[in-house]
């Protein structure tokens, strides 16, 4: 999985509508993200492509991380 190490307040996950896509979304839900809106689907002529927005209810800011480390 090529996700960033620092949590982001907003994520838009896209990819073929398959088990791997669902696993990526599920992993982010386990990290505390919440679904934001409905999924979107499109067809590229060969595959169904899905998109799902996710948000962290209380994103960790860089400043807050630095303050808690001191």
- Please tally the β strands and state the result: 3
Determine Rg (CA atoms, Å).
14 Å
Quickly give the structural class. alpha+beta
Uncertain spans, ≥5 residues at pLDDT below 50? none
In order across it, which strands form the biggest sheet?
1-3-2
Give an overview in words.
With 70 residues, the protein is of the alpha+beta class. It is built from two helices and three strands. The chain has helices at residues 19-30, 62-69; strands spanning 10-16, 34-43, 48-55. A three-stranded antiparallel β-sheet has the order 1-3-2, covered by helices on one side. A hairpin with a 4-residue loop joins strand 2 (34-43) and strand 3 (48-55). It is elongated and about 40 Å long. The model has no long low-confidence stretch (mean pLDDT 86).
Keywords:
70 residues, 3-stranded antiparallel sheet, alpha+beta, single chain
Task: Give the gist of this structure.
The protein is α+β, with helices and mostly antiparallel strands and 70 residues long. The chain contains two helices and three strands; from the N terminus they run E-H-E-E-H. Helix content is 29%, strand content 36%.
